[in-house]
Specification:
The chain is α+β, with helices and mostly antiparallel strands and 199 residues long. It folds into two domains: 77 residues, Roll (Ubiquitin-like (UB roll)); 82 residues, DNA polymerase, domain 1, CATH 1.10.150. The chain is built from six helices and five strands, in the order E-E-H-E-E-E-H-H-H-H-H. The protein has a five-stranded mixed β-sheet, sandwiched between helices. A hairpin with a 2-residue loop joins strand 1 and strand 2. Helix 2 packs across helix 5. The C terminus is likely disordered.
Length: 199
């Protein structure tokens, strides 16, 4: 009887997997080559995560995986068993915007809005690690996210404004209580700063 070797056996083209997205588990049957970006948008209907360059260069598809910013266009869902995925849709609590979303709206940080979901997710990760970031730390935290409309100033101001909001600090899984935070003389203050965010 002929027994096919491993290299002769056809590779599975689809796989069954469970993804935990925004606190909910989803059982999926998807092609093994499908990226997390494609699964989020096409299979789960979570279109807030945007198609951009699909090369890992623009940041528009940024999501958080176990609290860390990741580019969904470069990640395969088959690698994410047991991992916690957060997309921009997971920021809202019912009808209430997350303080970061509120700050972006109030500061006019979005124009076309295409980069905004990725900016929000990178900002959330930044404030989770550094609740009182300096202007330079905000620039560095968002350096992987490109915006072709705003010049970045309003985006920097929005993140700084959210950092001043004690509710925002509570919603970024920070271990530092808002009442215990000390003023940082080097922290970003809102104002006119036209420097390129990537510098």
């Amino acid at each position: 009887m002929f027994v096919a070797s491993e290299k002769d056996r056809p590779m599975a083209t689809k796989v069954t997997l469970t993804l935990q997205v925004n606190g909910e588990e989803h059982d999926l049957f998807v092609p093994v080559h499908k990226t997390l970006l494609e699964v989020l948008r096409e299979d789960l209907g979570l279109t807030g995560t945007k198609h951009g360059c699909e090369l890992g260069e623009c940041g528009s598809c940024t999501v958080l995986i176990d609290g860390r910013p990741s580019l969904a266009c470069l990640v395969l869902p088959v690698e994410l068993a047991g991992r916690k995925i957060l997309t921009v849709e997971g920021l809202r609590s019912g009808d209430k915007l997350h303080p970061l979303q509120q700050a972006f709206a109030e500061q006019g940080a979005a124009q076309c809005g295409y980069c905004t979901p990725g900016m929000l997710m990178s900002s959330l990760a930044l404030l989770g690690e550094k609740p009182r970031p300096t202007r330079q730390e905000i620039r560095e935290g968002l350096s992987g996210n490109l915006c072709r409309c705003t010049g970045y100033t309003k985006i920097l101001e929005a993140v700084a404004a959210a950092a001043d909001d004690p509710v925002s600090a509570a919603n970024t899984d920070s271990n530092t209580a808002a009442d215990d935070r000390q003023p940082n003389p080097d922290r970003c203050e809102t104002g006119t700063d036209t420097a390129d965010i990537s510098r």
